[in-house]
Amino acid sequence: MRRVIIIFIGIAFFGCENHKIPKNTEISKVYTEKQDSIIDKFVYNCADTYNYHYPEYQECLNAGLEKDSTIAYLWQQKAMPYFKARKYEVGMVYIDKAVKYKPEEYLPYRAFIKCIFAKTYVAAIEDFEECIERYGNSYVMDHTYNFHIALSYLQLNEFKKAEQIFARDIKDQAEEWGEDGVHYLDLFYYGITKYEQKKYKEARIEFDKALKIYPQFSDVKYYKAICMARLGNTVEAKENFEEAKLNAEAGFTINEDNAIYETYPYQKRWH
Q1: I want to staple 162 with a disulfide (CB 3.0 to 4.6 A). Which of 131, 154, 175, 257 is the partner?
Q2: pLDDT digit string (tens) for 67-87?
Q3: What does the pLDDT read at residue 28?
Q4: Residue 243 has pLDDT above 60, yes or no
């Protein structure tokens, strides 16, 4: 069931250009029949007939909210185009409304936005910690709440704290999914926490684990090259750097869905 929820949340945030959600998905199960009819009329048959950048898109949603201002999905749909346009403060006003009316669904979503998009890491940690207190360490956008907390601490230069949380998250994943089920992005960032603390040998071990899962991961090879250079292995450093560049040119980088909108932490930009 958890994987289904992950997919649903992802579609709700950044789907295709028209981003219409079929009526037989989870969305129709969480609202009253009357609210569902408002969503059908003002989202599916109004807002979704326009590009989300058009003013008519927001006008449709506003009309729906005039009918019922407590429908969290309408507030989230209003916020989404502003996040895509990097107008984070504007969008946050609307997503706060969504959280007010349906926190179990949109509190994790807002925390994710703060971490990956708005980059307000202290606020992201606060939201994710509240998520864990309320719902346990669940998932949003294919990663655990603890993953995002650790990433936020990494971005706040609290490397030791980030290292500890990543280690725990990786352990939890391995216990649930097996060693092969650990996400390579956890391993990459876990390695980065060690790299930032000059633990180059330990960082290399984690980078190699990530490369075992995603062999062309250019960002890992780039930081591994630096580690090799720091350890005095200039030959391997050069090999990894050249491979990293070739892999990056072929498009093998962080492949999270939302990476098309935002540069992820420590993602190497070659141009």
Answers
A1: 154
A2: 999 999 999 999 999 999 999
A3: 52
A4: yes
Strand partners, 143: 140
Q: Locate tokens 């009253």: which residue? A: 32
Could you give the CA distance from residue 52 to residue 57 in angstroms, rounded to a whole number? 5
Q: Are residues 115 and 166 in the same domain?
A: no
CATH code of the domain in which 237 resides:
1.25.40.10
Whole-prediction pTM value?
0.88
Query: What does the block give as tokens for 163?
Result: 């290292």
**Strands (DSSP E) found in 131-252:** 139-140, 143-144
Closest CA to 192 of 109, 254, 114: 254
- For 171, the domain range is 148-260
Residue 44 in tokens = 């599916």
Whether 265 maps to a domain, the answer reads: no
Which tens digits make up the pLDDT trace of 83-113? 999 999 999 999 999 999 999 999 999 999 9
CB-based contact 210:190 (threshold 8 Å) = no
